[in-house]
Amino acid sequence: MEKQLIETCKTQIQQRYFAQKINLTQRDFFYLIELIEERSGILVSLSTLKRIWKGKYVRLPQVQTLNALVSILDYDNWNEYKLAQQKSTLELSQNSEKSRIKLPLIFTILALTLIAFVSIYFLFTRTESISDTTFYIPESLSFSADKTVTSGVPNTVIFSYDLSEAKADSFSIQRSWNPAHRTLIDPTNTHFTEIYYYPGFHKAKLMANDSIIREEEILIQSEEWLATFSTMDNPIPAYLPLDKKGTLSIKPESYEKAGLDLRQDYYLSYYFIQPFNGIFHDHYELETRLKIENFAQKVCPFVQMRIIDETDVSFVTLVEKGCEGNANIKIDDTFLSGRDHDLSSFGLDLSKWQQLRVVVKEEAADIFINAGKVLSSAAQTERGRIVGFIVICNAPCAMDYIRLKDSSTGMMFSDEFDQ
């Protein structure tokens, strides 16, 4: 049943986005990866997507992956998609049955009588049901989140809540910005725990039905810089030792000692999540130099710089020359993709150091690569402090330095990695 639904989902995606194609190309898969990330916030690897499309999986894909897949068909999650397909199948079956069977008049009258009786019964029972499940959230409802350790990962967060007087069909906790990180909770309990494997700034949400009724800010700080190695098939990352002698990078032997295969699809990330008091999103300047150290059979390597503030994330993705279709930029609510924009300036020789500078001031953002301005975009104000950076790449990468300053307050942060 589930496998058939996955096949139906694939067919619907191809009909919507690639109506004239029978087989998808690598470029098509990259387009889907980008579209899925934009819609759901979930980054699905190329190998996972290809495996699903070829039907080469022994176990069903993870629910998170299925949630991501149906997001581009305008569904919130896999369960919602399944219910919609079941309803569609039932309606089709009923319509087919009606067109095939011609009841004699007496049976038609009996059927109509029965339908009327059932409708009246359903009306009364549904009215009772509605009155029993009245949506009610008391003002005194409590919701809090406490970390078990001050900083570092893994970090367990204990959510405490009191839903004893609240009424709704369901209650859930969404632990981050990602809708896939939403879990149903028992309203008769008072605690729910979640392990955070990655540093970050999150706004956890207590939800009744689909409404946010309470929010709690959760800052999972890193202890200095942290390197993680992850794949879509395994949500729990490997933590790698960093080499900070002149640059921020990973020694080749560290991958070997951890038993990691660089030939698979993976993401190497460098995290620095610590709030910069006095450095605000409204007027900052970020400068860094990045490069790919070892392509390791990667056809289209990339390196992405993410800037995290107290409201959202902005990012700039640099790609290897020739792979400009994979470039993308997000500055506040502005998202540009190389699929439908000319982002050729972001295609570079990533085997060499590339300087990236992002300047935000007066509600505008300018992006510079190697001292040349390549893009200007609108920027929003009142987004709070900068709370950290994340560098993400799909091949071994390095950072030469990073410098951050607030042009209004004069506050600065820099790391030259010269220890």
Rg, rounded, reads 26 Å
Strand content: 25-35%
Q: Specify the overall morphology.
A: globular
The biggest sheet amounts to: 9 strands, mixed
H-E order: HHHHHHEEEEEEEEEHEEEEEEEEEEEEE
Total beta strands: 22
Overall pLDDT confidence? 84
Instruction: Give the helix/strand class.
Output: alpha+beta
Instruction: Quickly count the helices.
Output: 7
Low-confidence stretches: 96-103, 105-110, 116-133
Query: Roughly how much helix do the residues carry, as a percent range?
Result: 25-40%
Separation, N- and C-terminal Cα atoms: 57 Å
Describe the model.
It is a single chain. By secondary structure, the chain is of the alpha+beta class. Helix content is 25%, strand content 34%. It contains seven helices and 22 strands. Strand 6 (200-208) and strand 7 (211-220) form a beta hairpin. Helix 2 crosses helix 4.
Write the layout of secondary structure elements.
Elements: H1 2-17, H2 26-40, H3 46-54, H4 63-71, H5 78-100, H6 105-132, E1 143-147, E2 155-161, E3 171-174, E4 182-184, E5 191-196, E6 200-208, E7 211-220, E8 226-231, E9 234-240, H7 252-257, E10 267-273, E11 284-292, E12 302-309, E13 313-320, E14 328-331, E15 334-337, E16 347-348, E17 354-361, E18 364-369, E19 372-378, E20 386-393, E21 397-406, E22 412-415
Parallel strand pairs: 13-16
Antiparallel strand pairs: 1-2, 2-5, 3-4, 3-6, 6-7, 8-9, 8-10, 10-20, 11-17, 11-21, 12-13, 12-20, 13-14, 14-15, 17-18, 18-19, 21-22
